[in-house]
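Ticket opened by: R.M.
Priority: normal
Category: complex prediction / small molecule

The reporter submitted a protein together with flavin-adenine dinucleotide and asked that the result be attached to this ticket for the collaborator who will pick it up next week. Submitted input follows.
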Amino acid sequence: MDQKFDVIVIGGGPGGYACAIKAAQLGFKTVCIESRVDAKGKGALGGTCLNVGCIPSKALLDSSQKFVEAKHDASVHGIRIDKVDIDIPIMMGRKDKIVNQLVGGIESLFKANGVTWLKGQGQLLANRHVEFTEHGATESQKISADHVVLAAGSLPIKIPVAEVDQDRIVDSTGALNIQEIPKKLAVIGAGIIGLELGSVWNRLGAEVILLEAQPTFLSIVDQQVRKEALKIFTKQGLDIRLGARVMGSKIQDNQVHIQYSDGQQDHTLIVDRLIVAVGRAPNTKGLVASDSGVTLDQRGYIHVDAHCLTSAPGVYAIGDLVRGPALAHKATEEGVMVAERIAGHYASLNYDLIPSVIYTHPEVAWVGSTEDELKANGDEFKMGTFPFAANGRALAANEASGFVKVISDTKTDRILGVHVVGPQASEIVMQAVIAMEFSASTEDLQLICFGHPGLSEALHEAALAVDNKAIHAAPKKSR
Ligand code: FAD
Ligand code: AMP
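Result attached by the on-call engineer:
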């Protein structure tokens, strides 16, 4: 007889581990199957996010930003630093330490909550049976459960025109482990991951060229915000080439020769290293047997309903495996929602209010609708912006680029979207998420007393500007 559990979770990333912990907290006998091993061959929970995604990239972004500040910005404050240097192995070692600490933390949380971690590969069979192959085992075992949650995440998309060797041509995982500063670095894809990784190496002194096939920079981002962001990033030295489609690449004399077309002409670019950051694809290979009852949608994601239930009864799928933004916090909240629903509790996720952040410097962050989306829908809206250049705290911190933009419904005054490019945008946007979750109107934000001096005052003033009532900006003439 198969060993029987209440809940089997396949995948121990932010979706899977959160789901497993929540299920155990709700009293279910829960196992989580996770196959990842680290560089030393040790099993590792935490998924893409902790091991090769959010956390290591932010560690490198923070180190490289501190380097830039010491080298270029300290003098503005009157601080004289004669020689600023960076030791890349120490920077990488710090990143690895943070990753290990957090990965170990998830293992402790599993122990504390009574989640069993099965180290190896899982595959969903029919009727909620799961085949589990332990690392190193020659034979697999079968287990089953009343509920199975698929949380296998995603993998970097591979393109034949730039084959990754994790040496000269790397994907996002390899880009987190480059051991020396390249003189010249190219990145294919100026999306969120490409911009973050490109920024790290640009700050450390590499000449960075981003090749982006789309003619529009960051087309998912609000038009005013992306225009400002492009201006800021270009000033920082990122060479962002739009409408540049990579057609081929080869390694010659230890360098990467890249062929790309700008639509009119073909170009060759020679760099020391190339990062391929052209998006991620759901990791469904070998995850479900053909008779499992689980179906995929047209784009290869596992098909789920609004509550992450797949086409197979009792089988759920969450995170990067399914529709919606490929973000860690979205995966986590789906995991928690699924565990609650398994317990028979009411739970749902407001997909309209998932915040997005690009962790460049300054950050770009947004929630809700963009101006373009509302225009395309024919919705009536009003908007206000407020620049950080008029915010005392931003000026005091020498961080006065960018602005906050608030968009609201003309008739109801309800806030529809908040878009930020500027210091601490990720934190400012969360205030908008909370307000919008409670269906706040612009007037609600206008009437709140914000602490002074604070970066968040820019959100307050942008809300006031929606009705042409900003205190620290000249009113529009039509008033
Ligand atoms: P994953 O984190 O991918 O975890 C899935 C796990 O399942 C993996 O560990 C895998 O080993 C395991 N697995 C797969 N198949 C099997 C199987 N058959 N059996 C057993 N185990 C299996 N998101 C943010 O929100 N903020 C950020 O700042 C951010 N930065 C990022 C930076 C980079 C460079 C990258 C690559 C991603 C970043 N992301 C960020 C995205 C984020 O990492 C993902 O959205 C998130 O990890 C998805 O979580 P998940 O649980 O769905 O899957
Ligand atoms: P994201 O999906 O945010 O990770 O961004 C990936 C980006 O890579 C998208 O903006 C794509 O347009 C871009 N991209 C994909 N393939 C190519 C290619 N061959 N050359 C240049 N850019 C590409």
